[in-house]
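User: Let's play a game. I give you a shape written as tokens, and you guess the letters that built it. Ready? Here's round one.
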């Protein structure tokens, strides 16, 4: 299969990976043939990339680190919990919600099982969802990314659960913010910005009243917008004064936000997002944690279409964990723009190709 920007997709292309609604249900399943009407609808819903079937890349299959069933269950749990709180903002977390913590313990246990069974797979967040589903899918992606870092650090079972639940629920305070504020396409006023910033304290207050959620998990909600140099909020904490769980969640939050389309901007490519993060090491983010994170994320995920410095266009077919920026590329288009007679692969890690670089993802 091949990942393409929505502007490069055409009627007759066949979907190779499902597109999801905000609650985790399937909007368009794999195997569906696209029509002009389908494409127009996907654009309206904020979908900016799709995986399509391609006879030259049918054997290229990107692996997510968690199973589709695990993701669906996790998104559904997040969706039900968050929408309940959105509908009942007066609760403000002052009362304990029945089975709240145990539901999320079950969800993250399933995520952790998947992560533990595929420790060597570089993270490739290949799930696609409508723009309105960002809030719910984002929570699951942040939990996956945070879990990868926790495992790499050798966290024990208790630490993994504390981190994972904190990551799943880190943005729960946004349920107390009027939806029109966090979906605005225009610049926020100072008053609106301040109201949104309260979501960290609102989230902490919701979580600390749940009898089966650890207070350190609640600190992920409180501190995920703190920055390593003390310029964050709500308390302008710096360095090790920010709980390590929150420092991990902060990295995962920003990375997934960058690679996701938002109402006010297009998505970043994974390579651009990782470049931004690395440049922010020991300024916004803990550099030691950031290095661990970047060792486990695919800069050029499998099935990504890329332009090479030679002018060739190809698709990433394999990512070398020892050199994530030098993948194997299946060439589909020659440097003069003509399609290849027969696709062939080049390994950018091999000596003969070391001068060739990836210019950008397409």
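Assistant: Ready! My guess for every position:
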């Amino acid at each position: 299969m091949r990942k393409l920007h929505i502007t490069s997709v055409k009627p007759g292309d066949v979907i190779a990976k499902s597109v999801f609604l905000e609650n985790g249900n399937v909007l368009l399943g794999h195997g569906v043939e696209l029509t002009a009407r389908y494409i127009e609808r996907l654009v309206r819903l904020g979908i900016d990339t799709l995986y399509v079937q391609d006879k030259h890349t049918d054997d290229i299959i990107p692996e997510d680190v968690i199973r589709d069933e695990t993701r669906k269950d996790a998104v559904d749990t997040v969706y039900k919990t968050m929408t309940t709180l959105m509908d009942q903002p007066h609760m403000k977390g002052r009362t304990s919600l029945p089975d709240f913590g145990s539901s999320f313990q079950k969800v993250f246990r399933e995520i952790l099982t998947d992560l533990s069974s595929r420790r060597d797979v570089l993270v490739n967040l290949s799930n696609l969802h409508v723009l309105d589903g960002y809030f719910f899918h984002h929570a699951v992606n942040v939990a996956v990314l945070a879990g990868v870092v926790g495992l790499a650090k050798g966290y024990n079972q208790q630490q993994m659960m504390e981190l994972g639940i904190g990551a799943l629920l880190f943005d729960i305070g946004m349920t107390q913010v009027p939806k029109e504020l966090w979906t605005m396409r225009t610049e926020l006023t100072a008053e609106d910005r301040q109201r949104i910033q309260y979501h960290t304290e609102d989230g902490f207050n919701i979580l600390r009243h749940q009898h089966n959620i650890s207070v350190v998990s609640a600190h992920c909600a409180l501190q995920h917008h703190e920055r390593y140099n003390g310029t964050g909020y709500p308390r302008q904490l710096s360095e090790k004064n920010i709980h390590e769980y929150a420092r991990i969640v902060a990295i995962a939050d920003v990375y997934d936000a960058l690679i996701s389309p938002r109402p006010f901007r297009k998505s970043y490519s994974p390579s651009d997002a990782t470049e931004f993060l690395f440049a922010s090491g020991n300024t916004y983010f803990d550099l030691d944690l950031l290095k661990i994170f970047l060792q486990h994320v695919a800069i050029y995920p499998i099935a990504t279409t890329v332009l090479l410095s030679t002018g060739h266009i190809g698709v990433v077919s394999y990512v070398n964990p020892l050199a994530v920026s030098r993948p194997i590329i299946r060439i589909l288009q020659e440097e003069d723009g003509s399609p290849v007679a027969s696709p062939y692969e080049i390994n950018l890690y091999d000596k003969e190709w070391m001068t060739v670089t990836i210019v950008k993802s397409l």
